[in-house]
Amino acid sequence: MPRNIILLKRITLILGIAVGDFSKLDLNLLVTLDTLLVEHNVTRAAERLNLAQSSVSVQLAKLRDYFDDPLVLPGPRGMRPTTRANELREPLHQALEALAEAIQGTRVFEPALAQNTWRVAATDYAESTIILPTLNTLTTQAPKTRLAVLEMVPKRIAKQLEQDDMDLAFHTLHDSPPTLRCHPLFKERYVLAGRAHHPVLAQELTLKEFCKLEHVVVSPDGGGFSGVTDQALATQGMTRRVALSVPHFLFVLSVLTATDMVAVVPLRLARNNPALSFIEPPLNIPGYEISMLWHECLHHDPAHRWLREQFVASCAGELPGRR
């Protein structure tokens, strides 16, 4: 249910009137009534509202007519609220604050109290390099929130974000849909990796030696045996031996630790992994930049802004590790 309808029903319940009758009441009159119940004085209420005293008196007359109650009466120390006015005082003030918050967009996100369920789309690579390093921050600062990681389907990113099916997506910058908000997170480069103490990775390789090795490649669409490395080799009129094609990077890492195969993988997947060795490949393989994507409708949402800030902070200052 839209927030404005919820607020409307809340105020009508507080005032004890039917929703249909609510349209007959100027909301400005409720602001005046709220101020009168705080100040207990028409003059001070007028000053606070930046109105003439006569205008406040006219509005008070309308309020009395609407509620069929005097609301405030002259007393020895200013205006004295009636029983009906006292019943209205606190709930009316709360309802007007909630309405002002909805209109002015002044909500403040409090991570420790939040109970959001966030949905982000990521490949297994982004899960390991972006989501995993951020998890401790999310669970520590926002312990009541939940995070759902969805399968990354590049062709569906824009539609899913537009339909509010997910909050964020992590994808390569050059393939990011132009209709989405985008924040670059980091640049990635490739290394040649294999099992720890792999004999061929103990020293630099020539391009011919590189091509003779048994390689594993990642084919996200399934079954492909070429990629960006093969495109780089083709410019030099060379090909390599690709023995295995798999759909995910994480399985590549398992294959490397269990066999003598090698693979050209992103540096962030190989570094600081004691089960792997890696060296620079003997040719220039173009890297890529990873970005965070979201829809414009969530851009100013305080909770969403906080979530984005956590991923940005986690990825900031990322530098290549050991060589």
From TrEMBL:
Entry-linked InterPro entries: LysR-type_TF, LysR_HTH_N, LysR_subst-bd, WH-like_DNA-bd_sf, WH_DNA-bd_sf
Gene3D superfamilies tied to this protein: Periplasmic binding protein-like II, Winged helix-like DNA-binding domain superfamily/Winged helix DNA-binding domain
One function term, GO molecular function aspect: DNA binding
Domain of life per record: Bacteria
Domain HTH lysR-type: 25-82
Record keywords, A-Z: DNA-binding, Transcription, Transcription regulation
Family: Belongs to the LysR transcriptional regulatory family.
Protein's recorded name: DNA-binding transcriptional LysR family regulator
The organism of origin for this protein: Pseudomonas duriflava
